[in-house]
Structure formats: C-alpha cells, structure tokens
C-alpha cells in the first residue's frame, strides 16, 4: 500500500499487542488495520496487518492476530521492530516506515516479508525476516531482498509456493509506477534465484495476491488511489503462476457504506469455503482523500461453475462469516 507524505506526519504506531487490545465478537469490521495478509494455521485464521488496534498509518513494528471463530481475536505480540532491522538506515533517509507484511513457511521456518519506506526521496525496499514460529520473534536476514528504482516501487510483497512445480515466487510492486514484478526465490526463502518477466495485468495498481484453485491460478490486485473511493480489487487468471493473464474483472468495490476496499488475501477455511480478508474505510467523513483509520473486514468468496469469482458482497456486524459455518 502506497504511503504519501501526508500520511507520514501522523504519529508512528506505538502498537503493543496485549490482551487489552484484543478485538472481540463484533464481526465486520473486525479491527483497525490495513494491508492484511491472512493464512490458516491449524484451523485458526492468522492476520498480519499494517498497524492494528490503537495503531496508525505507518508502523514501527509488526504484530499479528489470530481467531478460531472469526469473532474473538487473540493478539500474538510483536513480531519484529524497526530498530531490529540493521540495514534500514543505510539509505540515509531521516525516517523509515514499515507496512504491508506477508508471511510464508517452508521446512519448519516462517518468513516475514515487508515493505520499508520512505518511497521518496529514497527508494522503497523489501526485507525478509525469519522465525521458528508464526508469532516470532523474527530475526531480519541482514539485507534488503529488493530495492526499488527506475520507475519501480519495491512494495507489497507476496510469496506463493506453486503446488504443482513447488517453485517459490514473490510478487511485488505497484502504486505510482503501477508495475508488477515477479521473482523466483531460492529454497532459502531469503535469496532471489531469478526474475521472471511477466506482462502487466490490466488495471493493476498494487497489492498483488496469488492463489490456486482447481488447477487455475488467480492473480488478484488493487486498483486506484489507496485513500479514495475508486480503490478496488480486480483479478486475472492463468494456467501458470506467471501468466499470461486473462483479465476477469472487478470483484470488490465501494458501496454506500464502505469505501476503498482493497489490499487483500484469499484463504480457504477449515470448512472448505473461501474467504477474502481486506481493509476498507467505514463511512469516511468528507470527500477523498480519506483520513482516519482503515478497518480489517472478512467476507465470503463464491466461485461460479466455470471458476470465475463472483463479485463480493461486503457485510457488517455479525452478517460476516463465522467458523464453524452457520454459527452466530
């Protein structure tokens, strides 16, 4: 998710994930936060956001929340702090910000990928940290994995392991340059094996996410201005995780109550049903650019008989999905 200068003047998060910060029982919106990366671990949904309850636009640390029922959320503590990233000041910038985390696991280890700003005047960068457990603590790898430049913004990483080839791909980039790049990672998960040339998907802005279902690969992503009503989620499909892409349309967009939904994850629940985890603005006061805090929401995903994703209906309160399905 792009961060503009105005956002950076807000107070940096002093988020401390304690029991007092645990969101409980409300359904949608679930809790404050943005850019949620979600995974299912032992029948429990884990969400890794930018910020969180009591947080701000830009964070100086990452945390996580987990839930077995999509109602009561357990804070999982601080994963890593900005001052634990030794290389972060090497660019000479006066301030640095962390956002848009993503996690992946391999061979019993967990890997946290994240964006580092500012994007101006110095290029954004992507880092990676390693832990033995999803809740950390994470240890940074010691160097940036990717550095932006030449019209490319190194933001919004997402790592996908192809279930067919077992190759490991990282998708990243977007915002002003609106450029998607893909790399194959080495099995260390902290080194790049090669860059994979890909076509630019239609209406791509940022926040790429890849998932596979029934042998089809779904590349979904955000389009539009991050703090405006046109922010939305679109998708394309392919027979491979690196294209070529066939654009399929928009699946998540503003309605009368919720504005600018995007930067999302797809997850398949223990009941076999798919969900989308994303952020949105709840009835923002005044015109764009919106101000205030974005909120994490979770809604159901439906696939048509031919495998297309139907437009997502955003829900409020306890109309939101719950595990096990059917419970209220």
Describe this protein's structure.
This protein is an all-beta fold and 328 residues long. The strands form five sheets. Strands 6, 7, 8, 9 and 10 form a five-stranded antiparallel β-sheet that branches. The chain has a single domain, classed as 5 Propeller (Tachylectin-2, Chain A). It is globular. It contains one helix and 21 strands. It starts with a helix and ends in a 27-residue tail after the last strand. GO terms for molecular function: hydrolase activity, hydrolyzing O-glycosyl compounds. This is Glycosyl hydrolase 43 family protein. Pfam families: Glyco_hydro_43. Belongs to the glycosyl hydrolase 43 family.
Describe the SSE topology.
Layout: H1 5-8, E1 31-32, E2 34-41, E3 44-50, E4 61-67, E5 74-81, E6 97-106, E7 109-117, E8 125-131, E9 139-140, E10 146-147, E11 158-161, E12 168-172, E13 181-185, E14 192-196, E15 206-213, E16 216-223, E17 232-238, E18 246-252, E19 258-268, E20 274-282, E21 295-301
Antiparallel strand pairs: 1-21, 2-3, 3-4, 4-5, 6-7, 7-8, 8-9, 8-10, 11-12, 12-13, 13-14, 15-16, 16-17, 17-18, 19-20, 20-21
């Amino acid at each position: 998710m792009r961060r503009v200068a105005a956002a950076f003047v807000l107070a940096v998060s002093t988020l401390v994930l304690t029991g007092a910060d645990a969101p409980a029982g409300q359904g949608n919106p679930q809790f404050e936060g943005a850019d949620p990366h979600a995974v299912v671990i032992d029948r429990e949904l884990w969400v890794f956001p930018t910020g969180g309850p009591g947080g701000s636009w830009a964070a100086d640390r990452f945390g996580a929340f987990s839930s077995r029922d999509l109602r009561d959320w357990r804070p999982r503590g601080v994963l890593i702090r900005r001052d634990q990233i030794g290389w972060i000041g090497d660019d000479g910038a006066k301030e640095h910000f962390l956002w848009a985390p993503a996690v992946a696991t391999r061979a019993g280890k967990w890997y946290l990928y994240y964006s580092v700003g500012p994007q101006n005047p110095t290029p954004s960068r992507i880092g990676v940290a390693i832990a033995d457990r999803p809740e950390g603590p994470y240890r940074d790898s010691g160097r940036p994995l990717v550095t932006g430049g030449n019209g490319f913004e190194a933001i919004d990483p997402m790592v996908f392991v192809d279930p067919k080839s077992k190759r490991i791909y990282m998708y990243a980039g977007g915002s002003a340059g609106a450029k998607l790049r893909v790399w194959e990672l080495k099995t260390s998960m902290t080194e790049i094996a090669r860059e994979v040339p890909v076509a630019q998907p239609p209406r791509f802005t940022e926040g790429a996410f890849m998932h596979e279902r029934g042998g089809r690969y779904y590349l979904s992503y955000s389009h539009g201005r991050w703090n405006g009503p046109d922010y939305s989620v679109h998708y394309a499909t392919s027979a491979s995780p690196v294209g070529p892409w066939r654009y399929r349309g928009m699946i998540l967009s503003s309605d009368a109550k919720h504005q600018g939904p995007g930067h999302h994850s797809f997850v398949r629940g223990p009941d076999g049903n798919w969900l989308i985890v994303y952020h949105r603005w709840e009835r923002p006061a005044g015109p764009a650019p919106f101000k205030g805090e974005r909120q994490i929401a979770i809604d159901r995903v439906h696939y048509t008989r031919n495998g297309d994703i139907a437009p997502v209906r955003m829900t409020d309160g306890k109309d939101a999905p719950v595990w096990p399905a059917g419970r209220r």
